[in-house]
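User: Nuclease (SNase-like) protein. Structure?
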Amino acid sequence: MTLDRLLGLTGLLKKASLAGAFFVPAIWLSSVQAEVLCPAPRAVTPAQVERVVDGDTLRLKDGRSVRMIGLNAPETGKKGQSAEPYADAARKRLQALVARSDGRVGLLAGKQPKDRYGRTLAHVFGADGSNFEAQLLADGLAYQVAIAPNVELLACQQTAEQRARSAGAGLWRHSPVLAPSQISRSGFSLVSGTVSKVQRNRGGLWIDLEGGLVLHIAPNHLASFDPKTLSGLQGTQLEARGWVLDRSRRGGLKAGQARWMLPLTHPGMLKVVSR
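Assistant: Predicted structure:
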């Protein structure tokens, strides 16, 4: 670690003491450990950051908005709603990473270059080559997500998140994993439950969990899942993550169907906990 890096770390630690004691070990985690995670696999495109929007989005000086690939940070308060826990900490941490890089970043565009809102989808690297997503994940300030086809750095991002999870850092200080019966609204969730029923039809694979949640893999995504993982799921304990949908709002929810549905588009969204 260079002198400049050490001086930058010292400054960050001083700032962290003002933000709360929980933030100090998180910075040590990312600065010491996550810097070696998720190196850029090829040349990146230089860009200049104008401002940090939230914990996973940047606005560039050329006018583009960049949604960072592979993580989902807590939502900041919008339209009168309260911010989710650690949303402000995630935004401030990303601001610190950008400041340490003097606003200069490198972008590695995803195979899918834009999202439905027109934002650029990219991995973001600091001037020293460190990956911003890995550092936020290792701090416990965001959840790892896998959205095909932008999964090039999935394995190392999972490793970064696991470090935070094992250390009980940030979002993992208290387990955020919900049972299906605890789901109360649409949006991103990390859930765990026991498989009660598995059904395959023209609509894909439907995995019902006890408590009122069904995991759905559409036909066009089934080929990316390991058949061994999907076999013999009855009674299995699964952990899944992604954006939960409320099927009752669409109308026509049939008797016996689960109200909540979590679409799975990539194997990285599903983990077998026990069989």
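The mean pLDDT is 87. Residues 33 and 138 are 8 Å apart (CA to CA).
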